[in-house]
């Protein structure tokens, strides 16, 4: 069942790719209009999910995410319209080379193919993801949580009707409503090019461990802030507090603050801990700091709290901080606070993480804040896309060559020039 | 054993990345010198492999590849020196954004991490791959075929001694000589970022099917040439013959020629078949052409001969040709021959393959011919790198942000500008 949908989605993606960009743009505007027009039906279906959820054992936070709040549909439509107004990312020229006289090569962006998005609860994720997928010309399979099944079915219907009116094949976006379980979908590595899990760490980890399809995402977000001996105390306090308190459950929240030992003797470590505590943060100590600063011990050197708790550790040098981060971090986002420009640049050069910051909160690690437009996810994989990923992460490339009868013939008669041409 | 080597290689890669580019350049020049200086020892060890191979059941073609021919070492050294002279690919700025006043973001290229190269026979692959890996700052694990074990051990020793003299850690390049089998290496998906198999289709397929580590490569090369009704007969003959005859065993050799039906009635199909046969090619017919052109039947619609045999099929339109290619090709390289510019552009737009050509031999699908410098491989994967892959395929990116105490604080007090800055 899902395999047939995947094949249809690929076929539809090839149709979508060959059409003029204006058709994909029209489809996005059509979705935005249809969502607004069908708001009351969508909310009715969402209400059914909320009613059904009352009889299920669903955590309060999930219920929160399940509910489409007032103004949500209008906000979604606005986001989709702004995506429609943006530049078309498909078929963009990335590179152009004169290979030989009369023989030209170009590399252009192309849809990745077929995406599988597995998401929990949030029905508002569906239109967001579907729009990004259309913008990038991809086929899409959606597998939502059963707690949102009424909402998802309704929104999916509204969307495929809308794209069909605009001239795109409705098979481009398939909602997996059959009994196919996630395990079956994850076996379709010949048919699906990328899986994007949107949900809990457990969901992401489960998917990463159970498929050969590349996974775009991150299971952990163990971010560090290293406070150098030459840090400005005012920046230390505000960056440490913001990195934790702004949104403690986010993957880009800080989990461990490393102080240079000089900050302990200067009192900066103690003052920062007091500032964190004043902001509602519980502070725990790593094996070193627990003794030196008299803090309750952290569960481990590599722990993601996801709440208003943070580990503090003491290191003897930046070298030691970098090693600590490599050994215990998740290569997501790590930050140095220092007024020593050279130390800052050295840290930026040496820390092998997706995002490395100097004197800025780890919370900036985000597709919107980076200016990527819509965010597909944050990847801690090193392959394909790394860090906050925008619509570019849903693209691959193709090489196009134009000649006039050129042959290789053992490279005997051809004069390669390999000149870079303007795009 | 291999897991320890992988961890050491990652550590060494981080050291290499933090060093100045000139150290990596020096290491490459040091390898080139050392290979030349140690030529006689290397050839002695290669001779041992050749002697041992006589008692093994090794095909003649493998023996050919096993032997380091006269002048090979000098040629390798020359290639490595030219890589050393090229631009350093690590830490290159790819994107720069002013996020807000005083807050700047940049995306830079970075080593992928740890590569695993599994190669058969050819000992000359070792220095080539090791040099590309050093150029891109990656850690490397090498697993060679046991038939080349003396050559590999000797060359590996020469290389790690050379890089150590230049100031790089020798752990950067590990030769897996222990009893660890390929199966064990392929389980190290937490420690290895990319596998590059260099060898037979069977090796590549086996690796793709047995690991969760991303694989850069291609198992099949089922390339098509479509001869449009408006094709220039002279170009048809030369491109079809070259695409097959230039190197029939290559993955970019044509396996199936599709003729528009008009070319059958005009006699162009018959003439091309005669030209192919005159060039030594056996021509077989697809289900349509077998009857229409009286050809012996091809084994299947999707067959890679890898020798001087080709399938011919007849289609009614370009539409049908494109569908045929999508259904039976391997999305490697496909070509249209036509004087109709619009049809050519349409084909380039619609065929969903890594390389799509207009009026040029499929044999151009190659990293050197594309002007990518050294070739890492040709990828038919859609993720990360697609088509001929140069040293860029061994890189990922990192995001670096520089602020002066910037915090997010619910985005209340920050004015995002997201201005693209010059690189």
Automatic annotation (TrEMBL), chains A, B:
Reaction catalysed by this enzyme: L-glutamate 5-semialdehyde + phosphate + NADP(+) = L-glutamyl 5-phosphate + NADPH + H(+)
A Gene Ontology BP annotation from the UniProt entry: amino acid biosynthetic process
EC number: 1.2.1.41
Database matches in InterPro entries: Ald_DH/histidinol_DH (IPR016161), Ald_DH_C (IPR016163), Ald_DH_N (IPR016162), Aldehyde_DH_dom (IPR015590), G-glutamylP_reductase_CS (IPR020593), Glu-5-SA_DH (IPR012134), GPR_dom (IPR000965)
Ranges of residues in domain Aldehyde dehydrogenase: 3-286
Superkingdom of the organism of origin: Eukaryota
UniProt xrefs under Pfam families: Aldedh (PF00171)
UniProt keyword list: Amino-acid biosynthesis, NADP, Oxidoreductase, Proline biosynthesis
Top-level EC class: oxidoreductase
Entry annotated with the keyword Oxidoreductase: yes
GO molecular function, one term: glutamate-5-semialdehyde dehydrogenase activity
Pathway(s) where this gene product acts: Amino-acid biosynthesis; L-proline biosynthesis; L-glutamate 5-semialdehyde from L-glutamate: step 2/2
Stored HAMAP family: ProA
NCBIfam families (alphabetical): PRK00197.1 (NF001221), proA (TIGR00407)
Protein name, UniProt field: glutamate-5-semialdehyde dehydrogenase
Originating species: Chloropicon roscoffensis
Lineage: Eukaryota, Viridiplantae, Chlorophyta, Chloropicophyceae, Chloropicales
